[in-house]
Amino acid sequence: MDLRELKKETSALPDLSEHLQKFQQSWVKPIRANTNKNLPFLQNISEKRKQEINDNLFAFQQKLKEIGSAQVVNQKLQEYARYLIELKLTTLNGNKNKASYITKLLLQDEFLSITSLIHDIKYLEKNIKSATYRYSHINDLVQKGAPLEEAVQFMHLPHKNHLQALLSTSRKQKTLVKHLGEHFISLVKITRGKK
Q1: Average pLDDT over every residue of 115-130
Q2: Which residues have a Cβ under 8 Å from the Cβ of 75 and sit 6 or more positions away?
Q3: By the number of CB atoms within 10 A of the CB, which of 83, 115, 159, 180 ranks highest?
Q4: Which of 43, 67, 37, 45 shows the shortest CA–CA distance to 167?
Q5: What's residue 144's pLDDT?
Q6: Could you give the residue ranges of the DSSP H alpha helices within the chain?
Q7: Does 155 map to a domain?
Q8: In the prediction, which pLDDT does 41 show?
């Protein structure tokens, strides 16, 4: 994948904050007398099950807060791709000072460093996987307490699609950072006069 394709791919990453917001809108809220009007069967489940669901929802909400800044990772990937294109152009033009500056920026900058970017992507992936596990557990609890027709209706709400979008974007980020890293290494070798 060349740098232009990588730039297009990073720009085409879906807005994770939008998916997260839509997920929360279609997902179960903590069960109280005035919540989940679209899921009336939740009011009829046992108090013990309600408490268990609420406890799991609290832990799940904590994971969602950690995922909340996920869009920053997309922005970092976009900036990184932009700087790599700039590095390639300065390398082709023979501007070693500017190439050295960009290289240092991509290695040492707190926001843009490849190490920081990889760490952020791994952290996001870990949190999304953890949230997915909790999501499955809560789904099981809700479905066990719901009549069959209501359980089927619940599973057809769009929350699952939005969670899948978060997962697939996380996987895409891993692929993109790998390709960006490979381009960075090859450009640094060229800049430093190595083959």
Answers
A1: 92
A2: none
A3: 180
A4: 67
A5: 85
A6: 3-11, 16-26, 47-67, 71-93, 96-108, 114-144, 148-155, 159-191
A7: yes
A8: 86
Classify residue 38: in a domain, yes or no. Answer: no
- Print burial letters for 93-121: b (CB count within 10 Å at least 16), e (below 16): eeeeebbeebbeebeeeeebbbeebeebb
Range of the domain at 88: 3-24+45-191
Measure Cα distances from 170 to 33, 76, 149 in Å: 36, 13, 33
121 neighbors 170 (Cβ within 8 angstroms)? yes
Give 128's Cβ-side CA count (13 Å radius).
26
Please tell me the predicted confidence (pLDDT) of residue 88. Answer: 93
pLDDT-above-90 percentage for the chain: 52
Among all chains, which residue has been given the structure tokens 């479905």? 143
Amino acid at 71: Q
Are the beta carbons of 114 and 80 closer than 8 angstroms? yes
